[in-house]
């Protein structure tokens, strides 16, 4: 992938600015950043004394947990016979 195909998008996550470089659209990067920010704020509201590093790790753990649950559900749906999906 060449440097020309990558875009730079600056986002705000939990009060910090980050510049993300990648091939995804700006709108996609902003959506991802918004979801991360929302999750961090949700966890911080329940645990206001967490330092930023622990908050970031707990956010990552929660997001990966959600991802794995969705992946398992998707794989279960994929294994169903076609007539049960409709």
TrEMBL record:
GO terms for biological process: cell division. Keywords: Cell cycle, Cell division, Cytoplasm, Septation. Its main location: cytoplasm. It is found in: Cytoplasm. Activator of cell division through the inhibition of FtsZ GTPase activity, therefore promoting FtsZ assembly into bundles of protofilaments necessary for the formation of the division Z ring. It is recruited early at mid-cell but it is not essential for cell division. Homodimer. Interacts with FtsZ. PANTHER family: CELL DIVISION PROTEIN ZAPA. This is Cell division protein ZapA. It comes from Bacillus songklensis. The gene is zapA.
């Amino acid at each position: 992938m060449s440097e020309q195909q990558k875009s730079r998008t600056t986002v705000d996550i939990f009060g910090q600015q980050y510049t993300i470089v990648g091939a995804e659209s700006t709108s996609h990067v902003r959506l991802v950043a918004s979801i991360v920010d929302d999750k961090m704020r949700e966890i911080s509201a329940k645990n206001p004394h967490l330092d930023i590093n622990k908050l970031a790790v707990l956010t990552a753990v929660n997001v990966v947990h959600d991802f794995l649950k969705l992946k398992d559900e998707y794989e279960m749906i994929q294994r169903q016979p076609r007539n049960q999906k409709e």
